[in-house]
User: Fold GntR family transcriptional regulator from Colwellia marinimaniae.
Amino acid sequence: MNDSQITPQATIGKFNQLNIVALADNGAYLDAGELGEILLPKRYVPELCKVGESLKVFIYRDSADRLIATTDTPLAQVGEFVSLKVIEVNKMGAFLDWGLPKDLLVPYNQQHTAMEVGKYYLVRVFLDQLTDRLAASSKLDKFIDIWPAEYQQGDKVNLIIGGKTDLGFKAIVNDLHWGLLYDNEIFQHLRVGKKITGYIKQVREDGRLDLILTRGSKNKVNDFSDKLLAHIADRGGVSSLHDKSSPELIQSTLGVSKKTFKATVGNLLKKGKIALVKDGIKLL
Assistant:
């Protein structure tokens, strides 16, 4: 058998590209390598598909604990952090709505604090190696890298907003490290679980990361220019915001500080892209 004929090992809790090996009244059977043949129920099978065709499917266990495939997209895969809502609590633990027919379990020994129905919690989805079942944990620290982060000031990073602290918000950096966003440098609404782009403000001597949501100085002006131009264009080419507008109004409308707003306006004026008019800004 050559390499092109080898069926890749399918992974539980993730999307896989699998070949159809048989079609039946109840659906399509897919070759999942060492996991065997897995059923894709009929309601998910595309019309006119054939044996040998490849389908992108997510693999998990159904309510009868059987491996099953779906073309539905869960809110997270194994190895990802996500904020999910608790819809039931029973003797097994808390059950989260993650977008699939079978809810995701957080066992009691994986809960950082006791979970309550109706509340959202930031969790990490994982595959229990002992039971081969999918589960989630709100004990996030055990999934964070213990080694110091190797970042440079100004590096662009992916953030997932964590809990609130006295100084600001904790955020998970690139799914690997904790960092901190300071309250006095946040000019937009943040919530736990929100995914957002940020930047490394500094790497402290102890290896901890200070974060910021916009680049500094000249880059900050450039990063915001396109957003301001789009804001003006969306309002027929004239915005009512101006240098006398309150910092609160600017922040709520554009998500930036008044200082950034004024610096960007000055930069666009010099480039001839906008003009100041009575009580507003006009797009040229």
In short: The helical segments are 217-234, 247-254, 258-270. The chain has four domains: 3-70, 81-141, 156-212, 217-283. The chain is about 15% helix and 40% strand.
